[in-house]
């Protein structure tokens, strides 16, 4: 056993003894912490979304065949030169799946961003000012929520007609109440915190306190919910296309492609519906992984 050395004063130096764990770590040194288990899922979600974005951009400039062209070989199995086969009209499924990515991704991103902005602003106003504004906004939202979401979206789209802009506005309007409720709850829970009280004491205007101090501190849960809501919007978009009330007839869209090929599943032409369905599954799965990772990032209670 090693004998502790002694200093000039005759006091044993504990850093050189076998007792006490050896050399003490400096005060204030940050300890290593394991990464959250959701970090891998977050990276996978981001990677898949980047792939979808690249496919959407590429489809503007290049596809193996014309996604709107007809007259080719009918119901050809996947292979060369038709990677995903052809449908009953002779259209290349791979080219149409690529082209549909830009439409579905555009609708999803635009409607979610519009709902996020409008819902956050209205929720912040209702949560901070309360009284008349809060009561009026919440009564309108409660009336709106009395209708089933998908049915309400179908009714509005049927009334205003198909089209990308109409679908974006309808889905943003349908998704707005969720953002409004979440923003209102976050602002309500933080409006009496010390930083908000300090801003009032120094004479900040109410709108500055609400949108400059409270809203930035409440944006984390909203961003996490945005990714999950985007997955829901992608499913609703595909559902409208499947029912034939989404985009104009002939426009490549995953839901309508699945509907056009559903009869072929029984007769053996599975590829017409399979590949668009996998595209929807990949996008929604990546968005759910992204939302789960953002939730772990912004909610300390979920970190493990």
Describe what you observe in this structure:
The protein contains ten helices and no strands. It has helices at about 40-60, 95-130, 130-145, 150-160, 165-190, 195-200, 205-240, 255-260, 265, 270-300.
Short description:
This protein has helices at 39-61, 93-129, 131-144, 149-160, 164-190, 194-201, 206-242, 254-261, 264-267, 271-298. By secondary structure, the protein is mainly α.
Features:
mainly alpha, MetI-like fold, elongated
In percent terms, what proportion of residues is strand? under 5%
Q: Report the average pLDDT across residues.
A: 79
Overall 3D shape: elongated
Helix content: 55-70%
SSE class: mainly alpha
Sheet with most strands: none
Count of the domains: 1
Helix and strand sequence = HHHHHHHHHH
Q: What is the helix tally?
A: 10
Query: Which stretches are poorly predicted, pLDDT < 50 over at least 5 residues?
Result: 1-35
Roughly how many Å apart are the termini? Answer: 40 Å
Count of beta strands: 0
Q: CATH fold name, please?
A: MetI-like fold
Task: Give me the secondary-structure topology.
Layout lengths: L38 H23 L31 H37 L1 H14 L4 H12 L3 H27 L3 H8 L4 H37 L11 H8 L2 H4 L3 H28 L6
